[in-house]
Amino acid sequence: MLLQMIVNQPPVLGAVLKGTPPWVWGLLAGLVALGLSQARSRSASLVRVTVMPVAMTVLSIWGTVSAFGTSPLFGYVMLAWMFAAAMALAVIAPTGAPRGTAYDAASRTFAMPGSWVPMLLILGIFLTKYVVGVELAMQPGLARDGQYTLVVGALYGFFSGVFAGRAARLWWLAFQSTPLGKPVLTA
Question: Is residue 25 part of a domain?
Fold first, then answer.
């Protein structure tokens, strides 16, 4: 919808960007910084590798609720969200930790190679929230459009499932690397 409008009426983009509250650009800058930090090799505790998937899932659920919380289709939207999240988690979690990832049980930290995937996922959630917010502001009736709501709900769920699946691979590595399979959660 918004993309069609931008293609057919390019000046609309300027009006949309101008009407965006300044805090949105601050949030985007923070999310980009977070994504860039994931693009280089680093070490992190089990708690730290859990925080980002939880935060991105909260952002994803917030986007879904803020967009469709008052829609008569909200229950279906959340089912689409949960289904897509579960499918992405089920596909990604069993694939094993990325090559070059190691868990040191003594220090309870991971050594991880950099990846651009988190940046893409973070930007995907942000852009989905942004575009859906603009589209719903311009066409509130979309919140009652079954196809639109289910696609957006599933998209949000997919992003969350990918984040959770990537974290689950690390949790499994820590579980396998710790005596008696009992990792201790520390920050």
Answer: yes
Nearest to 147 by CA among 68, 94, 88: 68
> Which residues have CB under 8 Å from 81's CB, separation 6+?
60, 61, 64, 153, 154, 156, 157, 160
Domains contained in the chain, number: 1
Nearest of 20, 150, 131, 140 to residue 77 by alpha carbon = 150
- 127 located within any domain: yes
Q: Is residue 89 part of a domain?
A: yes
Tokens of 128: 């989905």
Domain residues for the domain of 155 are: 2-181
Name the token pair of 95. 């694939």
Task: Report how far residue 41's alpha carbon sits from residue 170's, in angstroms, rounded to the nearest whole number.
Answer: 15
* The overall pTM is greater than 0.70: yes
Question: Would you give per-residue pLDDT tens digits along the chain (187 residues)?
Answer: 655 655 666 677 777 788 889 999 999 999 999 999 999 999 999 888 999 899 889 988 988 999 999 999 999 999 999 999 999 999 999 998 888 899 988 888 999 999 999 999 889 989 988 989 888 988 899 999 999 999 999 999 999 999 999 999 999 998 887 665 555 554 4
